[in-house]
Amino acid sequence: MTFAAIIVAAGTGSRAGSGPAKQWRTLAGKPVLRWSAERLVDAGANPLVVVVSAEGEAPARAALSGLDGWRLARGGATRAQSVQSGLAAIEVADETPVLVHDAARPLVTANHVDDLLAALQTADAALPALAVADTLRRMADGRTETVPRDGLWRAQTPQAARLGRLRTAYANWAGPGEPTDDAAVVEADGGRIALTPGDPRLMKLTFPEDFEMAERLAGGAMITRIGQGFDAHRWGPGEAVWLCGVRIDHDQTLIGHSDADAGLHALTDAILGALGEGDIGDHFPPTDPQWKGAASDLFLRHAAQMVTARGGRISNVDVTLICERPKIKPHREAMRQRLAEILDLPLDRVSVKATTTEGMGFTGRQEGLAAQAVALLETPA
What we know:
30% helix, eight-stranded mixed β-sheet, alpha/beta, 2 domains, CATH 3.30.1330.50, five-stranded mixed β-sheet, Spore Coat Polysaccharide Biosynthesis Protein SpsA, Chain A, elongated
């Protein structure tokens, strides 16, 4: 079912402790806001409106860089005002379902979305909710009393309603005070509310200790990806060669559109392969003059940034250079250190090796040099 979505990300999150607002902080390798945005876009949100403060526009664009299908709207002084700003920015039919989600709940899934959309078939609004399991106590004037928990539920987001119905309900809201729950606004306007299964993973990041729990939940959804890359270049006239980001004086050079660093090219392809994102030529076509003579660390950084943008991390890399000369061993540690620097990895997660082909083949005849690489990544499932 087609649906629109709003992520409310205009708050300051003061209870989350010092530092940036919680929606801009990093969770398992990527900004908190991006978790929800990616999940909602993948589930089919079109459009996705992200509501931010004036100060939040720059960090929002940075957090969502490379993700398609979203737009920004300016938030208000309260959550209700921000939601209405998001509703005003949506240009679809009134009958289109819209999901309103808080950026502080990053671990939304497609299953949550499906449950909400199904519930709208028979209800005016729907929200995920968890039954209250703990004993509740109220304190007043230094005394406490137990509060019955029967029939009590913990409301979560996203919350769903049809666009026109939610706009009308907000327009008709008469208080008391500002609403903090979208389904409650529809309910106050006479609408029927449905509860869908809540999820402990939809926890709201409110206090500093919540981030530790969310890190564990997010980290549990990681999968391992392995990619391999291969590259070869022909020898030609020159006085130096670039290998794994290190310049080596030599009586020849490798011929290529960029600096022909076969080690970096193979490793870039290995990372792109693990991501399922094609090869280096798809991202940096050799027919494009802007890459003529370019330093190949640009290509490797690009691949590494794609991993980070997905909320993943590079676990380790291994490069093998295949050539008769130059001798690699004197430069191997410098190569490892350069790769570790480019990829921001500890040195013990970077391997560079070299071998010959015992005089056989094009490398044995010293017509060219080859490199192969393997990269192991961990990314969200």
